[in-house]
Design goal:
By secondary structure, the chain is α+β, with helices and mostly antiparallel strands. Helix content is about 20%, strand content about 25%. It has a domain at about 35-105: Surface presentation of antigens (SPOA) (Roll), CATH 2.30.330. It is elongated and about 60 Å long.
């Protein structure tokens, strides 16, 4: 997960400032802080024929195109924002950001 320093670096330090104390450019970005986005982590991909897909059952194994130590793609609202390492935190699956995608023209 990105820590507060990473978030501040991407969006500027907002702290606990009230909107009245914010600069105009900070007020514009503060409007998006409560917006929910979908985050997905792609462990790998595989191509499989439909007939083989239909044969899959419980316990079936599908080989992916990545190795166990490869970083996984982190996708936010359909756009890759970085890559990370999949880890286990208590009883949950998590991802640790290792690389952030450089933004550029699209």
């Amino acid at each position: 997960m990105a820590d507060q320093d990473d978030i501040d670096a991407m969006f500027g330090e907002m702290g606990a400032a009230q909107p009245a104390k914010l600069k105009p450019e900070q007020m514009e970005i503060s409007a998006v802080y409560d917006t929910e986005v979908e985050v997905s982590v792609v462990l790998g991909t595989s191509n499989i024929r439909v007939r083989d897909l239909l044969k899959l059952g419980r316990g079936a194994i599908v080989e992916l195109d990545r190795k166990i130590d490869d970083l996984s793609d982190i996708i936010v609202s359909g756009r890759q924002v970085g890559r990370g390492e999949v880890t286990i935190v208590e009883d949950k699956i998590a991802v640790t950001f290792r690389e952030f995608a450089r933004s550029g023209g699209s």
